[in-house]
């Protein structure tokens, strides 16, 4: 189980340190991930802090660890630190944090994420745009969802379903029906989620 995995990870980590092994970035990332998955964020953060060279995976692993352990504010602080240090975030970073913003109904943080994603070019990633549409919709800002939706060059079934569901959830049945008609006209194939929305 988790406790056995945690003990094994600590044993291997301590053995490597005593033996004088230098743990490279990839090895440190694995340790962060194992510690985080076992719920030991102190050990995960210690490994993270001790790293001479951090990459996007390092940041994502520790941020995700804090999200999974429920320390959402620490995850947000780490992302802000990541941006201050001008570390490169990827679509996975943004997907984790947009989901976090949605859970917290934190529109200000979400808008900041959208701004950063736009500046970095990640905004054009369909999964990031879909997550932003969902975030705005769940925060009651269907107008912002539609703005992103209307600005997208390409849409998948998830995009269509997210917008339709948002309209229906917020009681805007006319727009939901209009988007459903647009979906059919575009050639996109509705799935079960479309009909449930």
UniProtKB/TrEMBL annotation:
KW Repeat (keyword) present: yes
Entry keyword set: Repeat
Pfam families reported for this sequence: PPR (PF01535), PPR_2 (PF13041)
PPR repeats: 55-89, 156-190
Transmembrane regions listed in the UniProt entry: none
GO biological process terms held by the UniProt record: RNA modification
GO MF term set: RNA binding
InterPro entries from the UniProt entry: PPR_At4g14850-like_plant (IPR046960), PPR_rpt (IPR002885), TPR-like_helical_dom_sf (IPR011990)
PANTHER family: DYW DOMAIN-CONTAINING PROTEIN, OS07G0578800 PROTEIN-RELATED
NCBIfam families reported in the protein's UniProt record: PPR
Name of this chain's protein: Pentatricopeptide repeat-containing protein
């Amino acid at each position: 189980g988790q406790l056995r995995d945690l003990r094994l990870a600590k044993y291997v980590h301590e053995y490597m340190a005593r033996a004088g092994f230098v743990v490279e970035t990839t090895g440190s990332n694995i340790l962060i991930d194992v510690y985080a998955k076992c719920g030991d964020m102190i050990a995960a953060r210690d490994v993270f802090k001790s790293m001479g060279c951090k990459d996007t995976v390092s940041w994502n692993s520790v941020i995700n660890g804090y999200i999974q352990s429920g320390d959402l504010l620490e995850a947000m602080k780490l992302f802000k630190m990541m941006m201050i240090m001008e570390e490169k975030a990827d679509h996975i970073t943004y997907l984790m944090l947009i989901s976090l913003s949605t859970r917290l109904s934190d529109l200000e943080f979400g808008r900041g994420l959208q701004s950063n994603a736009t500046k970095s070019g990640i905004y054009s990633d369909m999964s990031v745009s879909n997550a932003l549409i969902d975030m705005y919709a769940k925060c009651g800002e269907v107008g912002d969802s539609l703005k992103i939706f209307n600005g997208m060059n390409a849409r998948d079934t998830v995009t269509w379903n997210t917008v339709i569901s948002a309209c229906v959830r917020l009681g805007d049945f006319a727009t939901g029906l209009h988007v459903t008609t647009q979906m059919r006209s575009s050639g996109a194939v509705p799935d079960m989620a479309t009909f449930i929305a």
